[in-house]
Amino acid sequence: MNALLNTWAVDGHVIARSGFPVNITGNDAIDTATGAIYYKGVDYDPSKPLYVYGPQYPGGRAINGGVNNTVDPAFTLPTGTALGNAPRNFVRGFGATQVNLAVRREFHANERFNLQFRAESFNVLNHPAFGTVNSTLTNSMFGRATATLNQSLATTSSLYQMGGPRSMQFALKLQF
Question: Which residues make beta-bridge pairs with 92?
Fold first, then answer.
């Protein structure tokens, strides 16, 4: 029994972060001096709630404003040539938490050779994490999450990226 239970190890990794800032933009315009396209600002009414909540929104929340929210929007397009009074990056996207777990065991063949077996599970609790939030006020998806976190972070493989679905991998490593 001792030989069966010894040399096992468990590694845990908990990741938690706050939401990325969302810079809300209005209509696009062309800079007459350079010809570059830029987005104008928006107006913010601090007496209105920043977010609206409900099951119809990915993650249960959306930024309050845009063409789909005409009842009581916190963000609106400025009139005329006004630049808008909304500050940059004070609205937040979704935070994220994730638990990763690994179980490993080493088998000692002799002084020169070891074999390590490892089973790793990413996002053990299979908790959804939302990423990119549409920040263009005139877009029909304004204020809503448009992708999961693993799709929003630029990497080569989204399978093992933070915010992806639960996934596992197994490995054997020969050490000499």
Answer: 21
Measure the CA–CA gap between 63 and 74, rounded to whole angstroms: 8
pLDDT higher than threshold 90 for residue 71: no
Instruction: Determine the straight-line distance between the first and last CA of the chain, rounded to whole angstroms.
Output: 27
How crowded is residue 117: how many other Cβ atoms within 10 Å of its Cβ?
Answer: 14
> Against a cut of 0.90, is the pTM above it?
no
Q: Residue 72: what residue type?
A: D
Quote the CA–CA distance of 105 and 171 in Å, as a whole number: 11
pLDDT at position 158 is: 60
Angstrom distance (rounded) from CA 48 to CA 102: 46
pLDDT digits (tens, 9 = 90+) for 28-62: 778 888 988 888 889 999 999 999 999 999 999 99
What does the alpha-carbon distance between residue 150 and residue 130 come to, in Å, rounded to a whole number?
Answer: 8
Amino acid at 152: S
Integer Cα distance of 48 and 7 in angstroms: 58
C-alpha distance from residue 86 to each of 91, 105, 112, 140 (Å): 10, 55, 65, 20
SS3 of 19-83: the string is CCEECCECCEEECCCCCCEEECCCEECCCCCCEEECCCCHHHEEECECCCCCCCCCEECCCCCCC
- Lookup: tokens for 7: 């040399």
